[in-house]
Amino acid sequence: MRSLVLILGLAGFSPAAEPIKSTVEFVPVGDNAAVPERFHLAKHSFPVELEKKYDLPASGVEIYKLRFPSPVESPHVENNTVHCEYFVPKGKTNVPAVIVLDILDGAQVVSRGEAMWLAQHDVAALVVQMAYYGPRRPTKEKIRLLSTDIDHSVKAITQTVLDCRRAAAWLAQRPEVDVKKLGIVGTSLGSFVGGLVAAAEPRLTTACLLLGGGDLVDAFYRHPKAAPFRAINEFLGGDIQKLKKLIDPVDPITYAKWLKGKRLLLIAASRDDVVPPVAMKRLWEATGQPKLIWLDATHVGAAAYVFPTMQAVIAHVKE
Question: Edge to edge, what strands does the sheet with 44-56 contain?
């Protein structure tokens, strides 16, 4: 998708403007009554900085940098500022808007490509850097969102969900956005986290979850790529049930009853060699059998279906 972004209009971009500072009021919908307890946020305000990055006249898209403090203070100062990129259709009003979450590698190629595609089709898209990704990674330590330190990973994922709740509040007050059509698009790792965000934030009524699923421990525990971790876990006295107890707080299937109230689009690869297809099947069953599209592909091979996939995502978000 990197070439797609370049082709669609980077030539002729306008220089960046000075950042605009403002304050966003976060008011939890229904006082958090419809939010899982782990993801509660009280009423508060937070500062934001918005800075124009590119004006792409050939594409009809403007791209902005957005920064705001995380509602969670982690031990790593770099990680406590949330960095986003906002792709917005130029001159359009009353448009749907989505948060976009990237894949595991975190280079933002997939998420930026999806965001550009969405914006060109009149859907505003906010790419949110997850905890410990991009500029949120500490410069002096090798810290990542996912690691063998399960407690750290669960805290980082929870932080990302709360970051996205703030991002949704910012989107909801944008003048060009139709507040009744807010959603999230997540791919691979972004799909797992996106499912949690959709369950945690009542403002988001739509979710498109690509190449993900739920019931993660059962789905992954016997996966060949999990063999080294499984061996260490069992050597230290762990087992699948103990692991499930640790992981369930950030497993989308745990929040299936909240997801049932959303408009879901699930897209999976029938020959997925990274995320077992059974993970998506179980999430689909647990969430009331929403719309599910199977691609005849491996995990990476699903990229060959990018055109019909994005067409389906755009149609779902706009519906």
Answer: 20-26, 44-56, 61-69, 81-89, 124-128, 95-101, 177-187, 206-210, 263-269, 291-295
pLDDT in tens, 116-125: 999 999 999 9
SS3 246: helix
- Secondary structure (3-state) at 280: helix
| Domain 2-318, CATH homologous superfamily name and number | Alpha/Beta hydrolase fold, catalytic domain (3.40.50.1820)
160 and 130 Cβ atoms separated by less than 8 Å: yes
DSSP string, 135-175: GGS-SSS---SS-S-HHHHHHHHHHHHHHHHHHHHHHHT-T
Mutual angle of helices 150-172 and 189-200, in 10-degree steps: 60
pLDDT, tens only, 209-237: 999 999 988 887 666 766 665 666 665 56
| Alpha helices (runs of H) in 131-287, residue ranges in sequence order | 150-172, 189-200, 216-220, 227-235, 240-247, 256-259, 277-286
- Quick one: angle between helices 150-172 and 240-247, nearest 10? 30
- Distance between CA atoms of 122 and 94, rounded to whole angstroms? 9
The CA distance from 237 to 299, in Å, is 32
Residue 72 per-residue DSSP state: S
Q: 128: which residues sit within 8 A by CB, 6+ positions away? A: 82, 84, 99, 100, 101, 160, 163, 164, 167
6 within 8 A of 63, measured Cβ to Cβ: no
Domain ranges of the chain: 2-318
DSSP lists the bridge partners of residue 99 as: 126, 184
Contact 252, 196 (CB under 8 A): yes
Query: Counting Cβ atoms within 10 Å, is residue 15 exposed (0-12), middle (13-18) or buried (19+)?
Result: exposed
